[in-house]
Design goal:
The structure holds two protein chains of two kinds. By secondary structure, chain A is an all-alpha fold. Chain A has one domain (2-256). In chain A, 86% of the residues lie in helices and 0% in strands. Chain A is built from nine helices and no strands. Chain A has helices spanning 2-32, 40-51, 55-80, 87-125, 128-134, 139-177, 182-192, 195-221, 227-256. Chain A is elongated, with a radius of gyration of 21 Å. Chain B starts with a strand and ends in a 10-residue tail after the last helix. In chain B, strand 9 and strand 10 form a beta hairpin. In chain B, the strands form two sheets. A six-stranded mixed sheet of chain B has the order 6-7-8-3-9-10, sandwiched between helices. Chain B has a four-stranded antiparallel sheet with strand order 2-1-4-5, covered by helices on one side. The radius of gyration of chain B is 18 Å and the shape is globular. In chain B, helix 4 crosses helix 5. Chain B contains nine helices and ten strands. Classes of the chains: A mainly alpha, B alpha/beta. At the A-B interface, helix 5 of A face helix 2, strand 6 and helix 3 of B.
Chain lengths: 259, 250
Amino acid sequence: MDYGLTVLGRRGVSFINRLGGLSIMLLRFLGSLREIPRSFGLIMEQFYLIGVKSLPLIVVISIFIGAVAAWQAAYQFKFIGAPLRLLGHAVGKAVVIELAPVLSALVFSGRVGAGIAAELGTMRVTEQIDALDALGINPVRYLVLPRVLACLLMVPMLVLFSNFVAIMGGLIVSVLGVNVSPETFLLGFKDSFKVGDFINGLIKAGVFGLLIGLVGCYEGFRAEGGAQGVGMATTSSVVISSVLVLVFNFIFAMLLFRI
Amino acid sequence: MSYIQFDNVHKSFNGQSVLSGVDIRIDKGETVVVIGQSGCGKSVLIKHLMRLIEPDRGAVRFDDQDIALLHSRELIRMRRRIGLLFQSAALFDSLTVAENVGLGLRESRQYDREQIREIVMSKLELVGLVSAADKHPSELSGGMRKRVGLARAIATDPEVLLYDEPTTGLDPITADMINELIVQLNMRLHVTSIAVTHDMVSAYKVASRIIMLYDGRVEFDGSPEQVRSASNPIVQQFITGQAQGPIQVR
C-alpha cells in the first residue's frame, strides 16, 4: 500500500514537473518569437527538414487513409443499406475533420518529434547545448524557435496535402473497388464540403504541430546520461506527444462539434 | 576584490554533495590549475563561472559582479568575455570546423562574413589546423577536436580561458602539444586561465598556481613548487598517484 502510494506520488510529481517544464518551454518559445528575423536562415532550414522532407511519408500514408476510409464506408453502407452515392460525402467528412489531421500528426510525431528529441538530446549529453550557452548564444532562439515554428506552420501545410491526397485515395478505391463513378464520388464530396470543417482541421493541425515541436524540444533538452538517456527522451517524446494529440483532438471535438 | 571569486560555493546533485564550501580567489593574469580526483567537482566548479550550473549556496563573482544577479543580456555579454574548452570539445557535429570556430562571432553580429573568415583562419593557424577548416568534427582525431575546441574558445578574444580536462584521453605527445598551446596562448593573449585536470604533467607545465579540491573543499593552494614539496599526505598521495593513503578511491 505504502509502496503503491509512493510510486503514485512520484508519478504525480513527475507529471507536474513535466507540465511545468513544458509551460516554461512554451513561454520561452513565445518570448523568442521576436527574434524571428535574426533566426530566419535557421527557420528556413527547419521548414525544409521538418516540412518538405516529411511530405513523401505524408503522401504515402494519406493515400491509404483515404483508401481505407472509402473501403470501410462502403462496407458499412452495405449493412445499413445506405446509397453508395454518399461515399464521397462520408470519406470527405472523415478525412477533413479527423483522419488527415490526427493521423498525419501521429505519424509526424513519430518522424519529426522523435527526431527533434534525439537530436537535441544528443546535443545535451555531448555538451553542445552548454557550448551554445558558453558562446553567448541563446539555445532557445538557436534550437527551439526554428523547430517549434516549423512544426507549428508545417503540420497544417502537410495536412493540406494530406486532405487532397487522401480524397484522391478514396476516389481511386471507390472507382476501382466499389464501382462508384468519379462524378458521383466528387459530387458527394462537394455536397459535404464546408470551409469551416476544413479550417478547423488546419487549426487543429497547427496546435498538434506546436505540441509535437514543444514536447520534442523539451524532452531533448532534459535528456541526461548517455545513449540510454537520449533513447528515453525520444521514446517519451513520441508517447507524450501522441497522447497529447489524441487528448487535444477530443477537446477540439467537444468545442467545435456541439451535440 | 579579486577578478574571479568563488565564495563559500556549495553544490549537490541528487542529494550528493559535490562542492561543500569552496573559497577561491583568482587575480587577473593568473594561470590556475585545479587538480583533484575524478568526480571531485572540478568541472562543476568552472561551469559555475559561466553560470552553466548555479550554486545551491554561496556566490561566484567575476570582475566585481555577482553573476547570479546578471540578467539574460548581461549574462550573454559576460559569457562572451570567457572562453571554455569542454572536456569532450563539444563541437557542433552538423557544422564544419570553420563554422564551429566562427559561430560565436557570427551570432554576435559584430563582424561581416569576410572578417569572420579572417578571424577563424587566424585562430585555426594558432592551433595548427588551417587545413582542417572545411572538415566536419567526425573526420577529426581526439587531439584535433580539442584544438578546434580551443580555437573556438579563443575566437572572440576572451579575457578568461577555462579548460576542462584539456589533455584527458590524449596520447602523451598530443597532450604535450595541447599543454604547449595553452602556455603559448596565455603568453600571447595575456588571458586569465583556469584549467581543471588530474594530469600532473599538464598541471606542472601550465600552472602558475595549483589548487587541489578534496572532499568538496580546497585542500591545498600554492605554487607548483609548493605542491611538489607539500607535506600534506592527501596532496602527496594524489601527485604521486598512490592507491594507498588517506584518499578514498570512489
